[in-house]
Design goal:
2 copies of one chain form a homodimer.
Chain A lengths: L9 H40 L3 H11 L7 H8 L3 H13 L3 E5 L6 E5 L1 H21 L5 H25 L3
Antiparallel strand pairs in A: 1-2
Helix pairs in contact in A: 1-5, 2-5, 3-4
Chain A binds a DNA duplex (23 and 23 nucleotides) through helix 3 and helix 4.
DNA sequence: TATTGTTATACTCTATAACTATA
DNA sequence: TATAGTTATAGAGTATAACAATA
């Protein structure tokens, strides 16, 4: 079917289709970039510290909250289900890096880094940052900022979207 | 230790430390954005089509190559190990969406979409694109392009980095 | 009744290494 | 010998749902 007569909305459709593919390509690139970096970081965390990204993430959350976080707060911040947080926390407790401290609400407790955990995390975080700096070194300082700001918009939109889905 | 005398390189270190945190925050934001979108897409693929992202990804690769792809090509493009590709391909073959066609090299074959697979993928791809457009609608057209270009740099740098590690 | 957290279960994806068959 | 692909194994991560204890 070559050269069809141009229907009234053909132009709009063509444009829409192009928009679609642009968004799709953008998404695929975003995914690729993240996977490339994530894979590298995972591998190095395993090789250098025998740990994993979720474990690192959990400890990182605790490091920002020395007073401790409740399980459901961890779950929300890590965007993972409660059962998962229990499992990861159990591991870290067994290794003496994290502890469950009593809370006023006796159903709950506060998960905190132990002193050993704090020390271990500091080491990991230092190296981890160096890796990330290296992996993102393809961008200038100004480009870092641009990317950061653009992703802020993406994030806000995605969060609004998610919020709209649980109207409570 | 308050107000230490300023060592010669304190400034540089401070700057470096700030750079580090900037890169780290950028990485965390990149990860969050991807996870937010990925989670949404995974959920919808499961809910609407009872499929998964890797399965969708594999079919998407085949759709771009109607002549078929060899297993190791799929493995490379999907950035996963060979054993994985075998597993995912097996599933799709069982469901009649994909087929292994003979190749001149009798060790290998070409994996292709079946007619049913092609049809199923077209439907999924259409919806999938609509989701992605919606999820990325927080950005203007110009911002899309900016983000796309910035991510190109990130990707190139990450790939160079990866290539440098396997000197072969 | 609702909430906090745990347990149990199951499934997907993943990598690694050993293996078969062609080249 | 090297390559294409499979198989076997093991482990991480995830979600869901049922459950216990407390609010």
């Amino acid at each position: 079917m070559p050269t069809l007569p141009t229907a009234p909305n053909a132009d709009r459709e063509t444009r829409a289709s192009r928009e679609d593919h642009r968004a799709l390509r953008l998404w695929l690139r975003l995914l690729t970039c993240t996977q490339l970096i994530e894979r590298e970081v995972r591998g190095r965390l395993r090789a250098s510290f025998s740990t994993t990204l979720p474990r690192f993430d959990l400890m990182s959350q605790l490091e920002r909250h020395p007073e401790g976080l409740k399980m459901n707060e961890l779950s929300r911040r890590m965007m993972v289900s409660g059962g998962n947080v229990t499992g990861i926390t159990d591991q870290l407790v067994r290794e003496g890096l994290v502890e469950r401290a009593a809370d006023a609400d006796r159903r709950a407790f506060r998960v905190r880094l132990t002193r050993a955990g704090d020390k271990a995390f500091a080491e990991m975080a230092r190296e981890h940052e160096a890796w990330v700096v290296e992996l993102l070194a393809g961008l200038s300082r100004a480009e870092h900022k641009q990317l950061f700001d653009l992703l802020a918009k993406v994030k806000r939109h995605a969060l609004d979207n998610a919020a709209a889905k649980e109207p409570a």
